[in-house]
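[Amino acid chain]
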Amino acid sequence: MARGVYHYDMTRKDMALFLALSAIWGSSFLFIKLGLQGGLQPLTLVALRLFFGAGVMFLLAKRLGLPLAAALPFLPHIALLALVNNVLPFSLITWGEKYIDSGMAAILNSTTPLFTAILSHFSLSDERLTWRRILGVSIGFMGVLVLFAPDLLFGTGANRVIGGLAVVAASAGYAFGSVFARKHLTGISATVLTTVQLSLAFVWVLLPALFLEQAWQASPTPLAWFSVMWLGMLGTGLAYLLFFRLLRDIGATPTTMVTYVIPLFAVIFGAVLLNERLHWTQLVAMALIFMGIWLVSAARSRRDSRSA
């Protein structure tokens, strides 16, 4: 029986790394908001985040002696992945946070596994939808409707709805990227893939940031600079290292449980540091989304245990 395939066997060190990864990714929504409040436009913020993230990964790849040239045969696929899995989601979430709270953005972003279940059904032969997974997807998206309900019923602001939909679209982008990478990019080192992917994503977003936002005219505050460095070096670079370490040590299923914990950290950070108010509909929505993710993940775990 492989460790962590269908039973969880975490040491204290594993748990500490798991919580650190959850906190870092959960804090990303806070630092996006702080970067925006500090004078950065969305595309400029994304470009700086990718610059720092790619730099950290490049140094890591060099330290490990991994040849980036190994990515050359996969370059067209990586370029598409960089666009769909980095540039578009990062940009949509950052733009969306101009209009919605960081905690709400994190809750909406947690729908990624639900989109992954749907896309996998049509793209991967071993990831078909079952009734259990269909139920999970349905319950999860009921949570999204609950989250949007106050704005839709009481007309509290069209921008909030559009901002929320942007984050939902970002989640679909992450899901597409996960399925696409599994189908086309399994023959490449994860560190090399991440380094080249983030580098190409920076190239994708650089010109739009320069010409659409005149990035050179930005005057970010020191806190905004700290935010993009945190997002790049920790939220992108270090987080990937922790993620790959956990995948190796405890397995895929328990590692993906960060999906449940990230929004909790994000909501706490938003409430404590940004004075964001937590509405009861957010708690109901989170519970429904988490229930949906659990049903989808449990269906996958049952299938893995039968094939182990």
Observations:
- Residues 12-307 form one domain.
- The chain has one domain: 12-307.
- Residues 30 and 274 are 8 Å apart (CA to CA).
